[in-house]
Amino acid sequence: MWKYEKKLQYPINIKNPNPKYAQIIISQYGGPDGELGASMRYLTQRYSMPYDEVKGLLTDIGTEELAHLEMVCAMVYQLTKNLTPEEIKKSGFDKYFVDHTTAVYPVAASGLPWTATYIQAKGDIITDLHEDLAAEQKARTTYDNLLTLIDDPDIREPLKFLRAREIVHYQRFGEALRLSTDKLNSKNFYACNPSFDKNCGK
User: Fold this and answer.
1) Which domains does the chain have, with CATH numbers?
2) For the chain, what is the HEC assignment?
3) Which of 73, 97, 164, 183 holds its CA 20 to 30 A away from the CA of 142?
4) Global pTM?
C-alpha cells in the first residue's frame, strides 16, 4: 500500500530547544484537530467509500497525514532534546516530563491525551466528506494559532508548509464532494431520501 521514503516530507532542523513551544505544537500530534486524528479518520473512512476516486483520495491524504504526524513529532523531539532540569521546571514542562520524560506522547496542548472521540466515520459519503472538510479547516486554524504564538523561523517554516497542505486537502475534499454529489441519486445514497424527505423526487 505504501512506499516509505526514510526522510521527512519537509526538513525539521531546530537549532534552539524550546519546551514552551513543544507544549503547544504537540497539539498537532495528539490534539482534537491534529495529524494523528486526521490519518486515522481518512484511513478508516476509505473502506466505506463507494467510489474508487474518493477511496483513493482518502488513502492518499491519510498517508500524507502520517508524514505530517512524523514532522510534528520531529519538531517536539527537537524542541525538548537535552533539556536541563532547570529548563524543564522553568518552562512548565515538568508536568509532562513526570509522565513521559521527553518521549513524544499524543496529547493536546491542554494536556488531554488523544482519543478516538476526536474522529468520526459514519459510512455515509456526504456525512464523512463534510467531516473531512471541517477537519482540514480546524487543522488550518490550529496552524494559524501556532504561527501567531511562535517567532522562531526554524519552526515557522515547517508550520507554514503544514498549513498550506491543509488548504490543499480541503480543496481536494471539496472536489470529492462535488464528484460524489454528481453521482448520487435516490437509488443509492441520500441525495434524495424518501424516508425523511416527503418532497423527494417531486
Assistant:
1) 19-183 (1.20.1260.10)
2) CCCCCCCCCCCCCCCCCCHHHHHHHCHHHHCCCCHHHHHHHHHHHHHHCCCHHHHHHHHHHHHHHHHHHHHHHHHHHHHCCCCCHHHHHHHCCHHHHHHHCCCCCCECCCCCECCHHHCCCCCCHHHHHHHHHHHHHHHHHHHHHHHHHCCCHHHHHHHHHHHHHHHHHHHHHHHHHHHHHHHCCCCCCCCCCCCCCCCCCC
3) 97
4) 0.90
